[in-house]
Amino acid sequence: MALVPLTAAFFIGRLVSYGLYVGGASAAARTSAWKLVTSSFTSPGGIAIQVLLLLGLVGLTRIDWAGRHKRHEPRRSRLPGRRPAASSELQREEPVQQLGEHRLFRRVMAAG
Asked: Is the whole-model pTM more than 0.90?
């Protein structure tokens, strides 16, 4: 994985988000909190943003995430260093240790 583009994207994202934080804090300092909240619900731009966010949320619930995951599984198993998981490995559940049987728990209780 190339670290330079990843690092550059990280810092550019930080600059943008910090700029938004400073802009929001400056706007909040110049006006009252109540005025800021009411303007976001009554202005045409604020209403449009709220409607778009609701539509995006509805759209995200309509996506078959499990189906998308299963569709990409064969491609993931072809990645270097990975082997495809057998179906028995996926369904096997590890036995849960009882808290009293755990060695660390016994050490902590003995030291206490």
From this structure: no
